[in-house]
Amino acid sequence: MTGSEGIIANLPTRRLLLATGALGALGALLVGIGEFAMQFSPAGGYEAADYGYFANVPPWRLTWGHFLGVLAAPLYLAGYVHVFLAMRPAPAWLRVTVLLLGIYGFMIGDVWLGSRVYLGLIVQAQATGLDSESLAALLTQAAAHNEPLIQVVRVVIGLASLLFVGAVLSRHTLYPRWMAAFSPLALLAAVFVSYVAIPAIGVYLLPSAMNVAHFAFFSLSCLVLARARG
User: Fold this and answer.
1) Tens digit of each residue's pLDDT (9 = 90 or more) over 166-215
2) Handedness of CA 211, 214, 218, 221 (dihedral sign)
3) Residues with Cβ < 8 Å from 194, sequence gap 6 or more?
4) Which domain holds residue 121?
5) Torsion, CA 105, CA 110, CA 116, CA 121, rounded to 10
6) In b/e form, how buried is each residue of 116-151, taking b as 16+ CB within 10 angstroms?
7) pTM, rounded to two decimals
C-alpha cells in the first residue's frame, strides 16, 4: 500500500475524515431540498428579474423549505473541515485558507438563504393585487440587499475551488489528480450548463445549484477516500 492509500491507513483521524465528509454531504442534501422546496417552479424562469417564479410556489413549501435550509446550512462547515483534513500534506496555509473561505462563504450563504423567503412572500402578496406599485418597490429594495450576498458566496467558493484544484494537481493532498475536475466550482458550472443545454433536467437542478454541486463534491470525496483505505 503506497501513496495516498498508505497515508490514509496511518491516519488516527480517519473516522473524523469520513464523518465530516458525510455531515457535509448531508448538509448539502438537506439545504438543497429546502432551497428546491422554496424556489422550484415547473415553468422555470429563475433568471427573471421580478422573481415571478415565486408566485408558483405554495406558501407551505416556501415556509418549510426556508426553515429546513437555514437550520441545516451549518452542516456545510463540517464539509469544509473534511476538505481541510483531506488536503494533507499540502502546506498549512493553503489548507487553512480553503477552510476559512468555505466557512466564510457559507456563513454569507446562510444569510442569503434566510432572507430569500421574504422575496417569495412579497411576490406572492404582489400576485394578489394588493397595492402592486408599492410592493414592486419593496421587492426591488429587498432584492438589492439579497442578491449581492450570493455573488459573494460564488466568488469565495470559486477561490476555494481554485486553491483546491492547484493543491490536488500538485499531488499535495490525499486525492488522486482526477479529483481536480470535480471541484465545487466545476460542478456548479455544470449545473448552470444543464439549465441551458438540457432544460428538462436543469430546471430541477438550478434552484439548488450550489447545494447540488457540494452534495456531489462531498459524496465523491468520501467515496474516493473510503476506497483508498481499501
Assistant:
1) 999 998 899 999 999 999 999 999 999 999 999 999 999 999 999 999 99
2) positive
3) 201, 202, 205, 206
4) 3-229
5) -170
6) bbebbbbbbebeeeeeeeebeebbeebeeebeebbe
7) 0.81
The C-alpha cell that represents 223 in the structure block? 467515496
- What is the C-alpha radius of gyration for the chain, rounded to an integer number of angstroms? 19
Annotate 89-137 with DSSP letters as a single string: TS-HHHHHHHHHHHHHHHHHHHHHHHHHHHHHHHHHHHHTTSSHHHHHH
Number of CB atoms found within 10 A of residue 102's CB: 26
3-state SS assignment for residue 69:
helix
For residue 178, the model assigns a pLDDT of 95
Helices 92-127/59-72 angle, 10° precision: 160
How far out from the chain centre does Cα 175 lie?
21
The residues, any chain, with a CB within 8 Å of residue 205's CB and separated by 6 or more, are 191, 194, 195, 212
Total domains in the chain come to 1
The burial class, CB within 10 Å (0-12 / 13-18 / 19+), for 183 is buried
